[in-house]
Write a structure and sequence with these properties.
By secondary structure, the protein is of the alpha/beta class. The chain has five helices and seven strands.
Length: 152
């Protein structure tokens, strides 16, 4: 089974390192990158073919709400989990309305984070199972197309 590709966005180095260590121990997860700003994440994340983005809402160069909507436009199939210090209902509702799939308050701890990720992984796998490409024709590599024959 393919590993779930996760990208982390948080401007606190200790949080990024902790998430990387925690999630890197999970056999079904591959951390494919991280960013400490909205700008870096918006440049890097779309090209990584992510399955899940874990995002803090309060970043030094902008707010995560903008990141959510821009990420939704550039990576529509990926799941988005907000991992934030903000426990207020208004933040949670605004994040979900902006397009987040789930929201975990940092004070709730790693168990809640892992449970939310498991839910998103399951949803992602169900979605991808419904849109699997057809098997390639025998003898044709779907990545390397044969050269076009000259028209006569």
């Amino acid at each position: 089974m393919n590993k779930i590709r996760i990208y982390l966005v948080d401007d606190e180095p200790v949080v990024l390192r902790g998430l990387h260590l925690l999630l890197g121990r999970q056999p079904e997860i591959e951390i494919v990158g991280f960013a400490d700003s909205v700008a870096n994440a918006l440049v890097q994340a779309p090209g990584l073919h992510l399955d899940i983005l874990v995002l803090d809402l309060t970043l030094r160069d902008g707010d995560g709400f903008r990141m959510i909507s821009e990420f939704r436009a550039s990576c529509p199939r990926a799941r988005l989990l907000v991992f934030s210090m903000h426990a207020e209902r208004a933040f949670i509702e605004a994040a979900i309305q902006a397009g987040a799939d789930d929201y975990v308050v940092k004070a709730e701890g790693t168990e809640k984070l892992l449970q939310a990720l498991e839910r998103l992984i399951e949803r992602h796998r169900k979605l991808m199972g419904n849109v699997m490409p057809p098997p390639p024709s025998p003898g044709v590599d779907p990545i390397v197309l044969p050269p076009r024959s000259p028209e006569r």
